[in-house]
Design brief:
Number of helices: 7
Number of strands: 2
Structural class: mainly alpha
Largest sheet: 2 strands, antiparallel
Shape: elongated
Order of helices and strands: EEHHHHHHH
Helix content: 40-55%
Radius of gyration: 23 Å
Strand content: 5-15%
Strand order of the largest sheet: 1-2
Length: 171
């Protein structure tokens, strides 16, 4: 397939844009794509994940409050020492513990970027067994809390037993 702009080179960049429900597809060679900044963010080094996160952290969220990093009280990960400002600059977290430490800041950002802050996609068959069990335990714990609040103690006891059974599988 030839480039739709120059009609000379082979198209290697395929852009699909959906704006207001209208889908447009463009096929360009790499040179034309770079020249036109075709993808909207182009091949420029300025488009990087850290810029997206930095912008998202400083934009107002659904409640209208912007997420800002206070210079005086920087939250710091206890495991790796990573700070919020480092996350905004780099666009990556330092360790697995950062997800827990920065959860309140990450949740709205992940919801804006992905539409949800919880993984709902496929899980690898070979290694996914433990992940599925852990997810099921979390779901059951939520149901347990709901049952306790509704004072459905028999149902809560059943759920508790299910949780214990799954936790034994993890051991």
């Amino acid at each position: 397939m030839l480039c739709e702009k120059c009609q000379k080179k082979q198209a290697s960049v395929h852009v699909t844009k959906i704006v207001n429900g209208e889908k447009t597809e463009t096929n360009l060679c790499e040179t034309c794509a770079q020249g036109e900044n075709a993808v909207g963010f182009g091949f420029e080094p300025q488009w990087m994940l850290q810029n997206i996160f930095a912008d998202l952290f400083n934009q107002p969220l659904a409640g209208g409050q912007p997420v800002t990093v206070s210079r005086g009280e920087q939250v710091r990960c206890e495991r790796c020492g990573f700070t919020e400002s480092q996350f905004s600059k780099i666009g990556k977290l330092g360790c697995a513990g950062c997800y827990d430490i920065f959860e309140t800041k990450l949740d709205p950002v992940l919801r804006r970027v992905h539409g949800n802050s919880r993984h709902t996609g496929k899980i690898p068959k070979r290694t996914g067994g433990l992940i599925v069990i852990k997810k099921e335990i979390l779901d059951l714990k939520e149901k347990l809390q709901t049952a306790i609040k509704k004072e459905e103690y028999e149902k809560a006891a059943e759920i508790r037993d299910q949780i214990r059974g799954l936790e034994k599988k993890l051991e």
